[in-house]
Give the backbone structure.
Amino acid sequence: MKKGEAFYEGKAKILYATDNPDLIIQHFKDDATAFNAQKRGTIREKGIVNNKISEVLFRLLEKEGVPTHFVERLNDREMLVRRLKIIPVEVIVRNLVAGSMAQRLGLEEGTPLARPVLEHCYKSDPLGDPMVTESHILALGWASEAELQQIQALAFRVNEILKEFFDRRNLILVDFKIEFGLHRGKLYVGDEICPDTCRLWEKGSLEKLDKDRFRRDLGKVEDAYQEVCRRVCG
Ligand code: TMP
């Protein structure tokens, strides 16, 4: 398998073609942004840590019957994945109130929810990923009704699997974002699953061990990523 041209560079990753049109290489950078890239920085070794954590979590999901784009980890910063046609919707699942939900609804972070909440946002950097409804997604043709149903069911299933996995590692999965894409007509979980895309709080102390340490200037950012890596990969 030969590494080809970089064909996309995002805020945290670079995508490279390979000599197999079905497969691409996902390279994880240390760059971090927040608030739609108004805040920029680097988190030392974040790329290495997120690559490893994503590998473990994608393997776990596959084992539990959730299709993911993961094929294999190639090295410290790169994984081989299926080439997906990404559905332009970020799917967020919440177990506790935090972040934008706390802000938008005037609720305290950590407020429990009677059941998990699912939100969709339109993947658009210029627009700041605005929240959209199912109606928007269907009317604009971003996904079919069958695809959307499958996406929502998979998102809740991923939540159950990850919640239990993190719980056993003394971490509360507060919320997370995942993306889906199509490959040869089949839906897969894509992108990455890591402390950039999940909120993880230490059980008991509720210490934040995720990207909120960077977003909110809480310090010990690298330590938090390394600690999650130890618990997930160790
Ligand atoms: P939010 O509370 O800011 O809407 O974030 C919800 C979850 O989504 C949280 O776990 C962080 C994750 N997230 C991303 O992965 N990418 C983003 O651009 C944003 C804003 C949040």
